[in-house]
User: What shape does this take?
Amino acid sequence: MINSRATSTWALVVLLFSAGVHAEKERLNISGQVLMDIDYYESFWDKSGDSSNTNLELRNGRIQFTYDFPAGWEAKLQVNAEADSDGSDIDLGSAYIRYTNWKIANITLGKMKEPLGMERNTRSSRVVTIEDSMMTTSFTPRKNWGIRLNDATKRRTWSLAATVEEDNDDDDQGYKEDEPIALTGRFTLAPIHGKEQTLQFGISGSWRDWNENTFQIRNRAEVFSADNVVRSAEFAADNQTVIGLEAAWSRNSLLIQSEYMATRVEEVNGADWDYDGYYFTASYILTGEHRKLSKGKLGTVKPKGSSGAWEVESRYSYINLQDKGLGAEASITTVGLNYYYRDDIKIMLAYLYPDIAGDVTSDDNGGHAISARVQVLF
Assistant: This one.
């Protein structure tokens, strides 16, 4: 559902696309993706402690329209669909217009990702693991409405954004009755950048006005169809600050990627709540392909031969939501295998093993999970 503050931007995007359809058709590009997931998980991921659950879902079905206007203007419109045993949902993804002819920076207006962290700003079709880490889903927001300035070269990127956060009761970062504002920025630098090797570092930060709304982090622990079993305390918040550090190294078929984030949330009564988290990801492409790392983002894997490409991956993910004797801390160890039939078809399989301490939703919090995904791009 589109909030009232976004109506004018949405109308402008629709108008531009309507004009584009009647203009030069070669400027219009239509693409999309289908992500089909199946999850098997045991009692750790279930609030009632059920011994096992299996869920098949359309994780994401997307159609995307992009249009390249003359004189440095471009636009994007995404429509997303999800479906599982509980029903289906259709919502608006990215929807923005962008001006690229200003020498200082590109200017983007509309609904987009905020420049906070590397994992959140990597396309879902290019991530190494099936789901983002607990740190990313807990401390970084989804797409919001606003304005963004950014500039990028192969070695350096910077981005600044002012956004209005959407009202979303299903968000991993709590409940928002109003529309809090946020100021966010990210800077990355690659001191080594070549065809075979890239080393990149980055820093990002965000200040978020919660305007006395209820704050609580609730996380599915890297299994999207599971319950929110990793939680923080719940309280009325005044504002939040997030700081993130990131590093990534790509050499031939090897990729190592890591991020650390810390957040401080100020309660309305003046008390501060401190949380943090991190992850380490490593992957190796057995068939010799190279995953590019450029402009602060991961590239895709393009198989060299007709038999496709095979990639092994592992991640250790940790989050600490404990403060003042409330909340949980948890870790997830993941090992997985990815198969790229072509650069537009990927099959992913992952095994997850959890650990948790502190406040838990069930007395039985053991077990493991297995997730699989079929990804098709068009």
